[in-house]
Design goal:
The chain has helices spanning 7-13, 22-32, 38-60, 94-103, 116-122, 138-147, 150-157, 172-181, 205-213, 282-288, 292-301, 309-319, 324-331, 335-347, 359-367; strands spanning 34-36, 66-70, 77-78, 84-85, 110-112, 126-134, 162-171, 190-196, 234-236, 389-390, 393-394. By secondary structure, the chain is of the alpha/beta class. It folds into three domains: 3-32 and 198-273, no CATH class; 39-196, 3-Layer(aba) Sandwich (Rossmann fold); 278-394, no CATH class.
């Protein structure tokens, strides 16, 4: 089933002007977002936390005491002047729940949300904060300033404790903001699985226009580009960040119905988190980098291709000499995912060690174009004609 057939998606798309390319652009935008399922976050959390603990132990040469806190909850809640109240870590929040599940198999020198007194007695040297998403970094900074005890800050300022931050996804501007605002946190200890250098939305004038022009219909007009104007392309199954354009999550002054009301994710949209939508955006991506023949051909032939559509996109981007980091941002891939796909292309001889498209790779792209050519008179050859725009997207100049 196409995602446009999901009733809630169909209703959301119907709110865009069909006379303009807006309805098509909204569908394209939805398919281009990175939808992160529950399982992916929990698998990342377990592997990254355990991996970091192993790295710390190797550097220390021993099992140094470690404390772990979820960022989404207050780190330390003071009950009164003499006693602290330990934060609950059961079902309150996906990160807290996943950490609680992980705690059962963590080594004894690692403790989840310990009290200050416990940390002092054990002489904790490493504190790990875990989050699912860092946008502008403001939430983490406020939590650090308002919720972390003065005692912990003192330990960090004196160099007794090292602070580590793990996040599934983060915008680079947010990571820089945290590093600049919180002195004890070094950039090298700010680690994210998926780093957004610059959102692909921000680089596409038509998508920016779409978010802007429909912003007047929303109660959260100031968030039409997302909080911090990040135009974030990442949506989690456990919730939609407010850095995502508000057309996705804000209700309207004039009856606008969002796809993710108040940033919640209705169960009927869970399909989005298990649906491979790359096949449906391949033609548009190739058109926008100048592969016009291939893009037009793919519109009719892409359903016959059963392989990895992102490999076709990457090959087309590289042939047009696009920067690796730009490609990664456009496809919203982690660095690891990008390297794996480049290795795949390299393994099949489509690119060389310097990521340059080989003669074989160029031939593969050429063969992907329509095999049927216009019959031409010997005396008067036809010139190919390509429209200025294609499915709502301008030709690259």
């Amino acid at each position: 089933m196409a995602i446009e057939e999901i009733p809630r998606v169909k209703q959301w798309l119907s709110q865009f002007d069909a006379a303009l390319p807006d309805q098509y652009l909204a569908s394209y935008l939805l398919k281009k977002m990175r939808f992160v399922p529950f399982q992916e976050v929990e698998e990342w959390l377990q592997k990254s936390v355990e991996g970091l603990i192993e790295d710390i132990e190797k550097k220390e040469g021993k099992k140094a005491p470690i404390a772990i806190f979820p960022v989404a909850k207050p780190f330390i809640n003071k009950f009164n002047a003499e006693k602290e109240k330990k934060s609950a870590n059961d079902s309150a929040g996906r990160i807290s729940h996943a950490l609680k599940n992980l705690e059962r198999r963590l080594p004894k020198h690692v403790e989840l949300t310990p009290r200050d007194d416990s940390m002092r007695a054990r002489k904790v040297k490493h504190i790990i904060y875990v989050d699912d998403f860092i946008g502008t970094g403001d939430r983490f900074i406020k939590s650090w300033r308002n919720m972390v005890s003065a005692r912990i800050k003192s330990w960090c300022s004196r160099g007794w404790c090292k602070i580590w931050v793990l996040s599934f996804a983060a915008h680079k501007t947010g990571l820089n903001n945290i590093a600049n605002q919180i002195r004890p946190i070094e950039k090298s200890r700010l680690m994210a699985n998926l780093v957004v250098e610059k959102s692909f939305l921000a680089e596409n004038k038509e998508l920016v226009r779409l978010a802007d022009s429909y912003g007047c219909k929303l109660k959260k007009y100031d968030a039409r580009f997302g909080y911090g104007k990040l135009l974030s392309p990442i949506i989690f199954q456990h919730g939609c960040p407010n850095n995502v354009p508000a057309i996705f999550w804000s209700s309207g002054k004039r009856g606008w119905t969002p796809l993710f009301p108040e940033r919640s994710v209705p169960s009927e949209l869970y399909t989005l988190f298990s649906f491979d939508m790359t096949a449906e955006t391949t033609a548009e991506e190739l058109w926008m980098v100048g592969h016009y023949d291939l893009a037009v051909s793919i519109v009719n032939q892409i359903e016959q291709y059963g392989g990895d559509h992102q490999l076709v996109m990457i090959l087309g981007f590289l042939e047009k000499k696009k920067d690796i980091e730009r490609i990664r941002n456009v496809l919203v891939l982690t660095t690891k995912e990008m390297f794996e796909k480049l290795d795949n292309l390299r393994h099949h001889g489509l690119i060389d060690s310097g990521n340059k498209v080989t003669h074989f790779g160029v031939e593969i792209l050429r063969r992907g174009k329509k095999n049927t050519e216009l019959k031409q008179d010997n005396d008067d050859a036809y010139n190919y004609f390509y429209p200025a725009s294609f499915l709502g997207f301008q030709r690259e100049v």
